[in-house]
Design goal:
The chain is α/β, with parallel strands linked by helices. The protein contains nine helices and 17 strands. The chain has a seven-stranded mixed β-sheet with strand order 13-12-11-14-15-17-16. The chain starts with a strand and ends with a strand.
Length: 326
């Protein structure tokens, strides 16, 4: 059976393995293999692998002596890993319990299994969980050299957005002023600060802001991050014209906050505007919203139009990188 693997030249193998390991993407259930002059590194989530890498299907051997959930079940179950927790999404309680037991009985290095018990809901975008194994919904997630402590039952967090976050992080330059309007536990501002930016993150979820402060300390960047609990629209007046970069990752309703983003923008600022739109017009609504709020005070240039991931049939999660020059 094919396994998603990153294929690299042998001489780049160790550097690649280390980078994937920092992002918690190496699948320890399979052996890293050399074939036809290339090295194949098995990965847990191919969608989270940086675009710079070549992801292929490869018949990587199961690590000798390792028992995987599929060995116990006879079929390959669908699951994702975040830190040392495994997440499944099963409506049938009996099947959920069977899969959880197999995961626990396997050789996967896990401390617990959670089943999604509701959709994301409410203003704070959290969901209910059924704890099938272990005794906690708290976890430490590692991503591109940063560690994020969080409680999945108390905050919104998606490990599937790791590649997109890293794409934005790599644009940040030392000395920038960066503002995340919906900062959560800090997956944007913490790596921004590690690259030398001075950052502000706001969120209406008080628990998320508590974790943001912990994560700033954990990653050694507390001196470069200001974490604020509250509605960004009530905070913006203190940072008018301050930002060189603004992140707007609230895709269902970012259009309601565009005027606030423009208020935060300095003379030359990049907005990262996230949206969910139908296939027929993926980028038009977001671009029109930004132009309506920013012009004519700013010259508006859309530098990137990008699909982040499929959201639902006929709908995509997209991003616009928009430069505002006063």
């Amino acid at each position: 059976m094919g396994v998603p693997c990153v294929r690299v030249a042998r001489e780049d193998g160790e550097a690649t393995r280390q980078r994937l390991a920092e992002a918690d993407l190496v699948d320890d259930g399979y052996d890293i293999t050399v074939a036809d002059g290339s090295l194949y590194v098995p990965v847990t989530d191919p969608t989270a692998v940086p675009d710079a890498f070549d992801v292929v299907e490869f018949d990587a051997p199961v690590r000798e002596g390792q028992t995987m959930p599929a060995d116990i079940l006879g079929v390959d179950p669908s699951y994702e890993r975040i830190g040392d927790l495994v997440i499944i999404d099963e409506d049938d309680p009996e099947r959920a319990r069977t899969i959880a037991d197999a995961i626990v009985d396997s050789d996967l290095p896990v401390e617990g299994v959670l089943n999604r018990a509701s959709k994301i809901k409410g203003e704070q975008r959290v969901r209910d969980w059924e704890v099938l194994a272990g005794d906690t919904t708290e976890v430490v997630h590692r991503e591109y050299g940063c560690a994020f402590e969080l409680d999945l039952a108390a905050v919104y967090f998606s490990p599937r957005l790791a590649t997109e976050r890293h794409r934005v992080v790599e644009q940040v330059r030392e000395g920038e002023h960066a503002f995340d309007m919906f900062a959560g536990v800090g997956p944007f501002v913490v790596p921004f600060a590690k690259r030398g930016a001075t950052c502000v993150g706001t969120d209406i979820n008080e628990r998320a802001v508590e974790y943001l402060r912990r994560n700033a300390e954990r990653n050694g960047v507390a001196d470069r991050i200001t974490a604020i609990h509250g509605d960004v629209r009530e905070v913006a007046a203190d940072y008018t014209g301050w930002a060189d970069r603004v992140v707007m990752n609230l895709p269902h309703s970012a259009d309601e906050f565009v005027e606030t983003a423009v208020e935060l923008a300095g003379d030359d600022c990049v907005l990262h505007y996230y949206d969910i739109q139908p296939d027929e017009d993926l980028y038009g609504p977001g671009e029109r919203a930004v132009r309506a709020a920013a012009e004519p005070a700013y010259e508006v240039t859309v530098e990137t139009r990008r699909t982040v991931r499929s959201y639902a049939p006929g709908e995509q999660n997209v991003v616009l990188d928009v430069r505002l020059r006063r």
